[in-house]
Amino acid sequence: MKAIFYLTASTLTIQTEKTVLKRITLPEDIVGEDKSVNTPALRSYFEEQITSIAKKASPGVVILGSGVLAQVVVPKGEELASFKEELLKNLTFSQEYVVEKTIETKTKTYILIANKALFEAVVDACRSAGIDIGAVLPFSLFSDLDAEESLTKKDIKAMLKQKELYKVGDFLSEETTEEEKVPEKAELSEEETKKEEDEVVSPVDEVSSGEAYTKESRWNTARLLVLLGFLIVLTLLMGGLIYFQQIRFQSSNTPETSEAVTPTPTEVPKEVAKTDLKVSIKNGTGTAGQAGRVKDLLSGIGYSAITTGNAESTDHDKTEIVFSSQVSTKQQQEIKDLLLTTFTAVTTRVDNQATDDILIITGIEK
């Protein structure tokens, strides 16, 4: 399965459509506050971090996000030089690392500028680790919104599916793209066509001859707003009609005298003390001392009845937590938030038949 390497000014998140493989924080001694880059050191650091997951992350695509990419939209007929000068003036990284790409559409021109030092370090490190990187693309090619430190499954699905956009925005090719034509899709079955129409994609602008920089939804914004307004009005009318019918029915069936009924208050179950909850921690990766480190974290927030051991297998990517019904929602959330500071991904579930109140099987650490 193809992996997405999502690069921002502070992190590199490697994920597939199913899971986050690794999140790497860029060290301050290599990438300074002024975004100056020690390129050889950063390349070596990336290679060291991604070698362990190389088999799961090839082939891959690098996506440029916040702090690594800047862009400006220029209306047709306007002079590009002044817009480009203003964009360069407001960059958050040094101009010595600049690589530029210009995309011409029917009505607009997009000037995109990326931090070449950062993304080249990722590409070189990946290729040294045996990972084939097919393209370096701006996140804005697929969405008008910026992403957080990691991408949603919807983001990744769009990036993996819309391969016809790779040539349009690939920073590995430094040529300017002028009214770039996107290849036509192959004929789809009726069911596939319906699925394509229902999927939401993020348009940027339409190019000549009906070919687009990104796909457009068949339902434009105006139609969607009209439909939404109609549904809201219809819902209010139906709700009001039902309400008045209920009032009339209750009025006609209300006895002359009625006895007030005092509701019985619902008893709120008491939260079981942390010291009374049995905790079992299993090392799910084989990393030495991992279960002990989790034990120290839980001891620090008040849990004491803790045992540690090894899981049946050591191939757990995600950290799994199984709670009994004795553990309150508040306690569950507290433990999950605590483990997210150490592990890349944490899943939880409740098992009323569980022998331990809290069972933790550790996964890959950050």
Describe the structure.
The structure is a single chain. With 366 residues, this protein is α/β, with parallel strands linked by helices. It is built from 9 helices and 14 strands. Strand 10, helix 8 and strand 11 form a beta-alpha-beta unit.
Characterize the largest beta sheet: strand count, sense, and whether it forms a barrel.
5 strands, mixed
Unreliable spans are 175-190, 192-219
- What's the arrangement of strands in the largest beta sheet? 3-2-1-4-8
Series of secondary-structure elements, N-terminal to C-terminal: EEEHEEHEEHEHHEHHEHEEHEE
Spatial gap, N to C terminus: 22 Å
Which characteristics define this entry?
single chain, 366 residues, alpha/beta, five-stranded mixed β-sheet, 9 helices, 14 strands, 30% helix
How does the SSE layout of this entry go?
Blueprint (H helix, E strand, L loop, with lengths): L2 E5 L3 E5 L4 E6 L13 H12 L9 E5 L4 E7 L4 H10 L8 E7 L3 E8 H13 L4 E6 L14 H9 L4 H4 L7 E2 L11 H9 L22 H32 L26 E5 L6 H10 L6 E5 L8 E5 L5 H12 L5 E5 L7 E4 L5
Parallel strand pairs: 1-4, 4-8, 6-9, 10-11, 10-14, 12-13
Antiparallel strand pairs: 1-2, 2-3, 5-7, 6-7, 12-14
Helix pairs in contact: 1-3
Summary?
By secondary structure, this protein is of the alpha/beta class.
